[in-house]
Amino acid sequence: MNNFKNIKLISIYILLICVLGMSCKKSFLKEYNPSNQTTDNYYVDAAGFESLVTSCYPLLRDITQQRVLEFVGTDVFAAGGWGGIYYNQPNPQGSPYDQYDIRLNASAGELQTLWDMLYNEINRCNTVVSRAPAITDEPDAVKNVRVCEAKFLRSLCYFWAVQQWGDIPMPLTETTKASLVVTKTPSKDIYTQIIKDLNECVTTLPVDATDVGRATQGAAKFLLARVYLTRGWNFNNSLGGSAADFTSALQLCDQIIASGKYPLESNWNNLWPIHNTNPNLETATATSSVAIANHSKEVIFAVQYANPSAYYGDPSVGNKTIGNNMHEMFGNGPSNTAQQPRTGTYNRFLPTQICTWAAYRLFDPNMDVRYKGTFNSVSYATTTGSISLANNFPNPQNITLNYNVNDTTAVARAWNNPATTVAERGVDIPGGTKNYSVINADEYIGLGYVGSKPVVDVLAWGAPMFWKFWQPKLDYGDGYSTFNDPLFRSAEVYLMAAEAIVKGATGAQLGGADVYYNIVLDRALGSNAGMDPQCAANPGDVADLSTAGYRATPGNISIDMILDERARELLGEGNERWYDLKRTGTLISRGEKYNPWIAYGQNGTPLIDAHDYLRPIPQGMLDNSNPRIEQNPGY
């Protein structure tokens, strides 16, 4: 066993003493801090041990809200708009995670944050494993399940970490002392350990959780399938993978499907909070809006947010009421359009990632229900008032528009249905006839420049809202959504099976890869099931309106086709898009093709290359190791 003993773990251990000294009350995730408790005198009996296991789950909230490393710099998400590139502005600059330039280095804050959170969780889970043998007043059957819950969560964290950084430290016991000695474990050995632990979880965890949110046999099988699938690709021949891993992944997927425990929702929209596209007309409450989604049988494992009155988050991040912020972090809210002051009606958007053109253009907006379920393309006035176009540039107009609540203020046309005549546009454009702005897909990134001066349009709207995770009736700015974040759901099981078959897996129970793929697609097509929906033939080229079908056949099914379908089905979910591209070796090809910042790089020359398939080891880890831990190649 290799030991990971980082001096930063002094503070982590202190946090464990302060944070984990909690006693279980009647329900899972209900915690309080008893007085005069330490890890040494509290984790000595069943009550303390149960509290320790329970405390392993809240950190998933913190970890899964660190989304930059999982989404930005991919084919479907960027950190910001790319108008400067599109309009040929001099020296445009985006996020280093999109441009993959010299700024993406060991000092990047997101790297250190994710690293620390993952190892905080790993050490917490290790504490469960290390202390379990001394707990004598809990039945072995229960204790073994709790240990496997910790091993499941530890496996998930190691799986995320090994994909980001490759060879990393792999402590498997509780860290109680500070040390500068750090030893990297080869990636293949980490995968071996993950698979060993998850196989134990599969045989030990219950089919049904005793409390909502705990790990189950189905969750362990799902994660193990994804691990086998990833190892099968065998990144840089470093994972110890082989073709047999794809068959192992397929077998697990077929077992999950055959169990009948996680049936696909008949209506894809039932997976998400209920919300009216015009929030002024919303009838659902914050609680009722998530009632169906949070109880969906399709969801195999989710980060829990639904009961904030009984759960107080993780004080280690300084916020005792950590809610789900998925509804505000994917960008393009309408708060700057006419007659929409900052209120809870639309809440707020604080995007750390926004969709690329390709993300919109992968859908058939007419046939695929996921387009309108993911994006809201119309905004409405939330107050009564007026707005003048006198300060528009370069087209100031002596026009004042009056709005009442519920009046349309902006429409974002779908990529396959652009406004082609001036008359179809808003009056903000000379000759337009609509009392609201109408934008086409090639304007989602901004309206351009006249010389070096940006166009000003008080009616303008950036792009369709990312609407999939929206929970209505939240107070403005709180961020405390109670929608449970679905990390694993069965639609992905079908797509993992399809990928495994394309890579050579044998023994599929349902047929070819196209059969598994089309089951997911047909659910999304609803009444159009069986038809061939049309996406953009060249999703990265916004000017190209040619189309291509995305129904699978035995002759056309491919990894790229499956990645497209994963984007449509799972957009913004699971913190996994970067991992999808890393696993399949398509980060560079799809990134350059679909993300304008990756294609631009520096002065129009892409900078992304093979070394970007691994992230740099964070500076804090380098500084606090002696001898100094080796940095990944290229950094």
Topology:
Elements: H1 9-19, H2 39-42, H3 46-54, H4 59-64, H5 68-71, E1 77-78, H6 83-86, H7 96-99, H8 109-131, H9 140-165, H10 187-204, H11 217-233, H12 244-259, H13 286-289, E2 299-303, E3 354-355, H14 357-361, H15 369-374, E4 375-376, E5 378-380, E6 385-388, E7 400-403, E8 408-412, E9 437-439, E10 449-450, E11 453-454, E12 465-466, E13 485-489, H16 490-502, H17 513-525, E14 534-536, E15 547-549, H18 559-570, H19 577-584, H20 587-594, H21 596-600, H22 619-623
Parallel strand pairs: 8-9
Antiparallel strand pairs: 1-3, 2-13, 4-12, 5-8, 6-7, 10-11, 14-15
Helix pairs in contact: 8-9, 9-10, 10-11, 11-12, 11-16, 12-16, 16-17, 16-18
Question: Short summary of the structure?
Answer:
The protein is mainly α and 635 residues long.
Structure notes:
The protein has 635 residues and is mostly helical. It folds into two domains: 407 residues, Serine Threonine Protein Phosphatase 5, Tetratricopeptide repeat (Alpha Horseshoe), CATH 1.25.40; 144 residues, no CATH class. The chain has 22 helices and 15 strands. The protein has a three-stranded mixed β-sheet, with no helix packed on it. A hairpin with a 2-residue loop joins strand 10 and strand 11. Helix 10 packs antiparallel against helix 11 and helix 11 runs antiparallel to helix 12. The longest helix is centred in the N-terminal third of the chain and has 26 residues. The N terminus is likely disordered.
